[in-house]
Structure formats: C-alpha cells, structure tokens
Amino acid sequence: MGNLRLLVLLSLGCVPAVTPTPFEPLTLDSAGLVDCESPPACELDAAYCACAEAPDWRLEDFQTASERNGETYGLQELFAEGKVVIVSFFFGGCDACHQQMAAMQIMQDKLHAQGYTDVQFITINQKEYSTESAQAEYFRRRTSIVCSTGDYPSCGDDGKVTVTFPLFQDTVEGGGWASHQGQKDDIFIYRADGRLHRFFGALERENPAERQDPKLALEANPDNFRLLERAIQSAFGVQACNEDSDCSETGGWCRLPDGTCGGEGVCAPRPLESEVTQCWETLMPQPVCGCNGETYLNRCALEAAGTSLRYAGTCQ
C-alpha cells in the first residue's frame, strides 16, 4: 500500500524524483557502548565527549503531569533507577521548542512500547524564564503535531500531544544549563551509568566542530528524529547481525550501515503499526532507495518496511 501511494505521488509530481547522491554512512548505532576505561580521542570540550560524567545538579520539577511535580531532584536519582536520560534545553516561549518536545514525547512513548522502558526524556527550562507565567507557556501552547488517540499514551482526545516528561527550572544557583555547558536545542544522551553516550550540538553553536550534522537537525526535519531514536537505542548496547534471522530472539530486523547493503549490521526493533501509518501520512517526502531496490517516501517508511538504505533519492 505504501509504495502504491508513492507511485501515485510521483506521477502527480508531489514527490520529486531525486537524483541519487553519495550518502555518508550514519554510524549512530554501529559502535554500541564506548569503553569508558579507554574512551576514544575527542577534540571537543570534555563536557561534549563520550564518557563525560553527568553534572550533579538538583532542580525543581514544575511539570504538572510529573509524578515528582514540585520536588527538587536531579540526574543522579534517575541514574539510580537505571534510566537512560536524554537532556534537552528549551524555554516556554519558543514555538519550535514545543514542536521538538512533542516529538520527543512521542518518541519516549514509542521506545517504552518497544521495551526500552528505562528511557527518560527531560527538559531544563532557561533560568531567565522562571516566572509562573513563563512556565505556564509550556502548558498553554499546543503543537501542530497530530496524533491519533490510542496510538500513544500522550495523545489527547483533541489529537494533539501532551508533554508529560519532567520539566526542570534552571536557576543561577542550580546551574543546569551552565553545568552541561548547554545552550538552546542541545541534546545530551546519558547512559544509565551516568556517562555521556552522545551529544547533539545546536546548529547555532559558534564553534562549527560542536554543531550537529545538518542531516541530524531535529528542528529542520521531523524524519531525523529516527536518527536520535537510533542513538538512544544504542545507549542500551547493540546486538551485531548479518541478516534478519540473527535478530529472531528480539523480534527485530537487521539494519545495515547506510550505503552498504551487506556486511555486519545491528538488530533494530520492528516499528509500531501507528508509526508505519505516520511515516506516510505526516512526514515530508524525501525519497530514498532501499537495499531491496524499491523507492520509499522517506527514511521512516524505509525502516518501517525493515529495509536498509542504499542511497538518498529514487531508485534508478
């Protein structure tokens, strides 16, 4: 059904027949967990390098939907519960921030449904927006991201996403942003042992070496959230594979490195039915060619079909 839709869209000119382009392999999940006894060389500030220890801040959680609403706590309590924590930096008056947070909430719901129940997203609100009215912007604004009731726990009756993960209020004394050396749109993925797994720097960072690859720009393309999802899954370790049958115990499929269509890959979970539908109905067309020789509307639809990527563009 999906490929039939794509053929119709192509015939109507709704999807450009993109010329195949060289595709730099994405290796977000191929290396698995870094051995922090001998971490790899890193030219960035130590706070952004793999295995950096998470800061020990304690801030108030003002998320009204949080079980710890009103409590003051920090990352160490979450690590003690075995959580893999994804830290983001936003402020309530930012529309793009709300869009990203809603997508993160859906991702958390989806990862929990796939068995990654120890995934925990959090946001630290900028200290300059600490008034009650500024905090209220997180709850007043509704995103344009549409979901179907029943697809995810955070999907409301109005078809909009309600963010329920913890929202921490930064302070001068608490220093949440400062202790991470973070800025708006940065994302840090910390392993359950409190060590940094991956850092995605904001595109606006002055130092080009600290910026995330534009292909991973979450604010630029919702489809790129699949790549963040992949990095989070790898924080739990990876299982190597050469074919789908190697992943039978987990019920997943063997995802090969981009552009290779052979060799060693990693086991990836099968997508949820609701996700398969959303790949075609809510994400922008960015045709890609699968290792099976078929063209898909975007990376999301490609991986929903359990197929690895041959190159960007329509199959020739």
Describe the structure concisely.
This protein has 316 residues and is an alpha+beta fold. Helices cover 23% and strands 16% of the residues.
Characteristics of this structure?
316 residues, alpha+beta, single chain, 13 strands, seven-stranded mixed β-sheet, 8 helices, three-stranded antiparallel β-sheet, Wheat Germ Agglutinin (Isolectin 2), domain 1, Glutaredoxin
How would you describe what is shown here?
The structure is a single chain. The two termini are 21 Å apart. Strand 6 (187-190) and strand 7 (196-200) form a beta hairpin. The model is unreliable at 6-31 (pLDDT under 50). With 316 residues, this protein is of the alpha+beta class. It has a 7-stranded mixed beta sheet with strand order 2-1-5-4-3-6-7. Strands 8-10-9 form a 3-stranded antiparallel beta sheet, with no helix packed on it. The chain folds into 2 domains: 1-30 and 238-316, Wheat Germ Agglutinin (Isolectin 2), domain 1 (2-Layer Sandwich); 35-237, Glutaredoxin. The chain contains 8 helices and 13 strands. The longest helix is centred in the first third of the chain and has 19 residues, at 95-113. The radius of gyration is 20 Å and the shape is globular.
Number of contiguous helices? 8
- Structural class per helix/strand content? alpha+beta
CATH architecture of the largest domain: 3-Layer(aba) Sandwich
The CATH topology assignment of the largest domain is Glutaredoxin
**Approximately what portion of the residues adopt beta-strand conformation?**
15-25%
> Biggest sheet: strands side by side, in what order?
2-1-5-4-3-6-7
Helical content stands at 10-25%
**Distance separating the two termini:** 21 Å
Taking all Cα atoms into account, the compactness measure Rg is 20 Å
What summary fits the major beta sheet? 7 strands, mixed
> What's the CATH H-level homologous superfamily of the largest domain?
Glutaredoxin
Count of structural domains: 2
Average per-residue pLDDT, rounded, comes to: 81
Summarize the helix and strand pattern as letters.
Answer: HEEHEHEHEHEEHEEEHEEHE
- Strand tally, please? 13
Please state the overall shape, judged from the principal axes of the Cα atoms: globular
Low-confidence stretches: 6-31
User: Briefly, what CATH class of the largest domain?
Assistant: Alpha Beta
